[in-house]
Backbone:
């Protein structure tokens, strides 16, 4: 079997919350990514890698950082070209999933400066790292809870500023690094640093299927895929195209979305009720609700949209004591949402 062939996203059985969270982040990358927690064998990595076939096209510069020239946030190379009245060459490409290995060094992640070249020529020479490749794409970290602290700090800085800064011996270089951060983890192998946990816009807890028929279908599809990947892909080709088109349409619709005051009030009251600090949760909840409404073909965000995805945004943000569970009680959240 070709190792590069990914299991089709639309063929994944169940796990609707996980799939919704990933889709909503593609529609609106400013949601802030998603953390997927669950035991091994629950299609976490499969779902993330399967996104490759659904990701939309984008127009970018052919520079190493694939800058979006429609914005002011560009790399020094593109800025230099524009200053010289020479527009950088552009290309149409698809968003992609860029993986960050746990074993990666700081230089491999952030990139490196060639000091010898700078001393000899007076010009900076930068070797791009993972954060350069991730610009405008999905940055995926499997077993994110096992990532070394110094790499976590790099991710936090880039996620907060949207740029990657590298400095060596007084020589510095920076480039845009805006990405959708997606992490997967098994909670049994350790917790995530609170600073990184809060950086994820959404969090999903996934479990293996307990229903016999559903579990049988999971196994049936996996065996069918392994037996003949190309035939299996063909079987789901129409569904894949339909979902990709639906995501593309939602992205276009998002720019003209309206929001009623009831939706705004519901988001604020939910955050207050569950003791969520700061305003990031409120804003993220409304962004996600708008993406949800756009995905289902609506042009107005309502309180029902907020209620539909509130658990994805609030479960990992609740103020809690050291020995409390790290998530809002699902039953309590559902009961509250029913009564809004």
Residues:
């Amino acid at each position: 079997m070709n190792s590069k062939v990914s299991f089709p996203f639309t063929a994944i059985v169940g796990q609707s919350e996980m799939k919704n969270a990933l889709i909503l982040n593609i529609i609106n990358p400013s949601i802030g990514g998603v953390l997927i927690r669950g035991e091994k064998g629950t299609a976490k990595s499969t779902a993330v890698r399967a996104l490759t076939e659904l990701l939309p096209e984008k127009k970018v510069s052919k520079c190493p950082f694939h800058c979006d020239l429609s914005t002011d946030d560009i790399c020094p190379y593109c800025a230099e070209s524009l200053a010289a009245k020479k527009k950088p060459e552009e290309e149409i490409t698809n968003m992609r999933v860029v993986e960050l290995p746990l074993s990666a060094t700081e230089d491999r992640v952030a990139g490196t400066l060639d000091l010898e070249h700078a001393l000899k020529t007076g010009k900076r020479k930068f070797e791009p790292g993972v954060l350069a490749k991730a610009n405008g794409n999905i940055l995926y970290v499997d077993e994110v809870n096992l990532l070394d602290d110094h790499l976590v700090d790099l991710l936090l800085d880039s996620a907060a500023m949207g740029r990657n800064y590298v400095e060596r011996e007084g020589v510095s270089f920076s480039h845009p690094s805006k990405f959708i951060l997606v992490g997967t983890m098994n909670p049994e192998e350790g917790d995530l640093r609170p600073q990184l946990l809060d950086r994820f816009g959404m969090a999903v807890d996934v479990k293996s299927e307990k229903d016999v028929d559903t579990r049988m279908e999971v196994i049936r599809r996996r065996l069918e895929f392994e037996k003949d990947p190309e035939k299996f892909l063909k079987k789901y080709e129409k569904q894949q195209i339909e979902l990709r088109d639906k995501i593309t349409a939602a992205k276009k619709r998002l720019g003209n979305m309206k929001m009623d005051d009831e939706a705004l009030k519901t988001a604020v009251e939910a955050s207050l009720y569950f003791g969520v600090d700061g305003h990031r949760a409120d804003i993220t909840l409304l962004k996600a609700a708008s993406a949800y409404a756009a995905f289902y073909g609506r042009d107005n965000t309502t309180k029902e949209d907020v209620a539909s995805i509130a658990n994805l945004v609030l479960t990992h943000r609740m103020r809690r004591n050291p020995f409390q569970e790290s998530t809002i009680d699902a039953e309590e959240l559902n009961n509250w949402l029913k009564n809004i």
About this structure: The chain has 15 helices and 13 strands. The CA atoms of residues 234 and 240 lie 10 Å apart. The mean pLDDT is 85.
